Amino acid sequence: MNDENFVEELKKINADLFIVVAFKILPKSVFTIPPKGAFNLHGSLLPKYRGAAPIQWSLINGDKVTGLTTFFLKEKVDTGNMILQKEIIIDEEDDFGTLHDKMSSAGAELVIETVKLIEENKIDLKEQKDSLASPAPKITKELCEINWENSAEKIHNLIRGLSPFPGAFFKKDEKIFKVYKSKINYKLNLQAGKIEQTKKEIFIGCGINTLQILEIQPEGRKRLTAEEFLRGYTLN
User: Fold this and answer.
1) Could you tell me if 226 and 199 are in contact, meaning their C-beta atoms sit under 8 angstroms apart?
2) Quick one: average pLDDT of 9-15?
3) Which one of 132, 152, 181 terminates a domain?
């Protein structure tokens, strides 16, 4: 991004404004080129969830509301002055895939609205309060592994935040099983990690309450509903 030839090519465009969405971190030599600056669309209500994975972390943490922010770029990532924000309701059935799509549509509208305000010189910038900031770091493989000692609610939200990609997983008999959809069961009392199966249902005990597995993927196989899985596989 700091390549001199690349920077010179950008200058030749004579753009009034740069818009950045889901891209690499831009150096100052790039985002200071256009006279009206460069703004970014971020998938959270900044300063909450600064970082690479704001949508995933809002689900993993069980938030009911998230949102979008447009802000002018600064050298320090996700800290620039905010232009517009829009709240997005997180539905109980939302996972990363559905929430991402919902926010993409709303984000396109927010970008257009932001451009109009900049064009008309009607922006009312708001500084971010660092004291209210929280991180949204990259998703690691270690984070994706399910710990059945955690509560069913925490595991359920982890599954939502990582579905359909990269997918929360657990290991059983040295094989990996990814879980894409689940439901909390408040009545069944199983020890953490204990598996109970019927002909159509899979339940796994957690630190608090029990989790019903609704969609699962055996290692090297396709994604299946619990009923489809139990026709040819077992976890016991």
Assistant:
1) no
2) 93
3) 132
Sheet with 38-42, side-by-side order of all strands: 18-21, 38-42, 65-72, 82-89
Least confident of 24-38, 179-193, 196-210: 24-38
Residue with tokens 């399910």: 146
Cα distance between residue 128 and residue 61, in whole Å:
22
Residues in the chain: 236
Residue 230 has pLDDT above 80, yes or no: yes
The Cα–Cα gap between 10 and 34 comes to 9
pLDDT at 186 over 90: yes
pLDDT at position 23: 67
- Enclosing domain of residue 209: 141-232
CA distances from 94 to 157, 210, 230 (A): 10, 20, 25
State both tokens at 106: 């709303």
Residues 72 and 189 in one domain: no
Query: Given 115, 132, 149, which residue is the final one in a domain?
Result: 132
> Which amino acid type is present at position 40?
N
Residue 120 in tokens: 């008309």
Provide the pLDDT for residue 3. 73
Instruction: Give the CA distances from residue 197 to residues 85, 190, 214, in Å, rounded to whole numbers and listed in that order.
Output: 46, 12, 12
Whole-number pLDDT of residue 2: 64
Q: Looking at the chain, list the stretches that DSSP marks H as alpha helix, in order from N- to C-terminal side.
A: 4-13, 28-31, 54-60, 96-119, 141-144, 152-161, 226-232
Q: Tokens 């509903």, residue?
A: 225
Quote the pTM value.
Answer: 0.95
